[in-house]
Amino acid sequence: MGGVGIAHIVTVGTSVVRNVSIHAPRFNVPGEVVEKFRRWAQAPPRSLEDSEAGQRASPGCEEFEHALEVLASEPYVVSAELNAMKKYLEARMVDAAVLLASDTGASEFSARVLGEYLSSEGVRVEVHRVRDLGLDFHSGLLNLVDAVAAAASRYGGEGYRVWINLTGGFKLETAVLYLAACLSRMGIEKAYYIHETMKDTVEVPVIPVKLEDYLMNAVRALGAEEVPADEAEARIGRRVLDELLRRGVAERVGTSVRVRRWVVHLAGGLLEASRQPSRGLT
User: Fold this and answer.
1) CATH number at residue 107
2) What is the C-alpha R_g of the chain?
3) Secondary structure in 3-state letters for 78-108
4) Looking at the structure, do residues 78 and 20 belong to the same domain, yes or no?
5) What is the pLDDT of residue 267?
6) Residue 264 lies in a domain
7) Cβ contact 14:147 at 8 Å
8) Residue 222: inside a domain, yes or no?
9) Using CA atoms, how far apart are residues 114 and 108, in angstroms rounded to an integer?
10) Which secondary structure element, helix H or strand E, spans residue 220, and what is its range?
């Protein structure tokens, strides 16, 4: 399909769980369920309470249905993510949403409740739990950029305009998302968030950036597939290979190395041209 609307990439925190625990008593939600929401909102990652939240993150579960009811009654109060999207939702400028949860049960629960609500509003929805996000600093943040790059490429390829919602999650995640929005060839058109002081949606400029030339050349030399480590060293040299790995541009996969997906997407037509010389840049 082509020219089908606007897709929003959204990181999701735990505002739904936290705010449902506050507002649920007004909806005659059983006290034991309200108490669960309170425990989930305060639970550390990998705790039994947090795991329980992830296990109950599906339609039909009592907790899920109560949370959805509360969210649907006051979507812009209960969800920080929806609050940032309010003017776009009201103007029917949200045709698709990719909801990226951290690797925690409470975030996944929040994202899946949000997804169910948006689906009921006619929005095409995907929900993904980003591996290690919120658990392992380095791995989680790079996996987040990978997820954003994949979503932007997929929806952009289908003809969607791609926007990114910077509201949900932690401030450092927001910084990484903004970096992703600015990466050359990422295809993200607009970034926005709810300003904490102004209490209004603020749009921020997407300023293109790119890798340094010598790193781009190394990425072109390695290509998009896994390469045995000794062969990779022969192609680009030990020093540059070590730098790619140290910076997180590439990762080890067993005895091989592989350029990360977001970098492959950034390189775009350069990588394609290195494999198929007859084709130009895209």
Assistant:
1) 3.40.50.10770
2) 21
3) HCHHHHHHHHHHHCCCCCEEEEEECCCHHHH
4) yes
5) 64
6) yes
7) no
8) yes
9) 10
10) helix 213-222
